[in-house]
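**Protein record**
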Amino acid sequence: MQIFLFKLLITPFFIGSATLAGRKWGPAVNGLLVGLPLTTGPISFILAHEYGLAFASQAAAGNLAGQISMCVFCLIYSLAAQKRAWLTSAFLAVSAFLLTTFLLNQFVWQILPAFIALVLVIAVAERSIPRHSFASESSSYPKWDLPARIVVATTFVILLTTFANVLGPQLSGLISTFPIFGVVFATFTHSQQGPNAVARLLHGIVLSSVSYAFFFLIVGMGLTHLGIALTYTIALLVTVGISGLFYFATRKDQPQVVRE
């Protein structure tokens, strides 16, 4: 019962916080937040409780490899968005994510090789996403936007953690990175603020994948030695610290949001 309540409460909290922060500080900050393990972190924590430390530790390698697919999603969407509408861009990006995930699942991933591979992909994607420096228009959001994001995210967490034992640790990790929020945030930003704003959003997601990488490196290497509480506490603190550094390092390059 306690774990089920955790599933119901933790994801809405993270998604609500990220959504409201993104609306206040713009797409670049939104991207930094969306790229954090907002769903994969709770999923990993739940897997450790429900299926054991070894299972969650092995799944962490899948989480790292799966974030490669997320970076591919960001790159393809940002490039497609320069000339295509949001629906076509989303279709191409999700297709690229699924194909990349399928290819990654053909290998057996260990924690360090997965970490190194992800860092290399982050470096390539970060340099390849179009960069823009001018201001973006503010936009209004429908009333159902935030509740819909929370419902979709919470449902995804519950379903994946329920069937994780059937999927196995690696595939559970790979699938957990499916860009639910990437799609939602990207399409809303693209349709309401344009391709330049969505490029900043996706660039932020790729940057925050560095924090994500260290989070799951710590989880994968620490769980069986340090236990649940200490491992996730350290991973969370490191993730927040790295994200803070990225925020202040890139703050001067972020355009100001023009408010009506």
Notes: The chain has one domain: 2-258. The CA atoms of residues 34 and 182 lie 7 Å apart.
